[in-house]
Amino acid sequence: MTVVGVGPLLWLYNVSVVNVPPLMVTDPLPLIELDQVDSTNSWLLSQSRLGQIEWPVAVIARVQTGGRGRLGRKWVARPDASLCLSVGMQLKKVPPSWISLAVGVSVINWLIGRGVTQVGLKWPNDVMVGALKLGGILCESSCLNGGSLLVVGLGLNVEPIDSENPSVSLRDLGLQVGPDQISEIGRSIGECLLLDLNEALTNGFAQVATQFRTHDVFLGQQVKVVEQGQELYRGKAVGIAEEGAYLIETQKGLVSIQSGDLSLRQVRDE
Ligand code: BTN
Questions:
Q1: Is the CB of 124 inside a 6 Å radius of any atom of ligand 1?
Q2: Which end of the chain is more exposed for a tag (fewer CB within 10 A), N or C?
Q3: Backbone torsion region of residue 71, taken as left when φ is above 0, otherwise alpha when ψ lies between -120 and 50, otherwise beta
Q4: Could you tell me the sign of the dihedral formed by the alpha carbons of 229, 230, 236, 237, in that order?
Q5: Is residue 13's pLDDT more than 80?
């Protein structure tokens, strides 16, 4: 994971730091609420370079003008229709390659805890309901004070969105979230995330892999591996492997794919 494309901060209004009571973490997680920013991930990464912020911290934005997704994609969200959250945390070491899988598992567990039970994960880190995307995760890291800064970005559809890709929102799933509740949700997810990532980093990958497998929407399905629109392999999804790679059983044998520039797609009747 690397830091990519940190853009300029375009608009920044009404910054307030809210000290929130602890939910599942010992220390309260400070929450910064921005009216508008290019990208909450970029904002945290640039703050780390300025050295003016204490970690861990969560930031949410009502409007993102340059939201970023995996593989250089854009994350487009209408105001108040999406949770745009980034959580920055300091680690002693470089985060392991499987950290974004642990983030996905944590988000799923948070949703299930709120009664959104139909959710699953698409490797490496899309939050899905069946074939529809509910949210996406973008983890980035940089060097910080002899260790690392991990920035976990989460975009979650709160209201139905206009997208060329099939998607679903919390409202579609029966969970109504008003604009004034979005920060509450961001804070709550951020606190759960810190707790869960602490546990994952302490216990290691095996536990994360087991949990991911439980929620893997592609497990046992026919899938294809795509890189920049080109199909590389197709076969049966065998699931998570060492270090967060993904195994596909192809006609030529077992193939292990790393996150990199690759995406998984379901093979439908073609
Ligand atoms: C993906 O689906 O490819 C990941 C999308 C991640 C979007 C979130 S929104 C909050 C944070 N800020 C960003 O610029 N991106 C992430």
A1: no
A2: C
A3: left
A4: negative
A5: no
3-state DSSP call for residue 73? coil
Q: What is the pLDDT of residue 50?
A: 92
Element containing residue 147 per DSSP (H, E): strand 147-157
Helix (H) or strand (E) holding 119: none
For ligand 1, atom 10, name the residue with the nearest CA.
84
Predicted confidence (pLDDT) per residue in 100-130, tens digit: 999 999 999 999 999 999 999 999 989 999 9
- What is the rounded distance in angstroms from the CA atom of residue 124 to the CA atom of residue 104? 8
Is-cis flag, bond preceding 30, omega within 30? no
- Tell which residue, 183, 168, 238, has the closest CA to residue 59: 183
- Residue 12 gets the label, from left (phi > 0), alpha (psi -120 to 50) or beta, of beta
Q: State the average pLDDT for the chain.
A: 86
**Closest protein CA for atom 15 of ligand 1:** 68
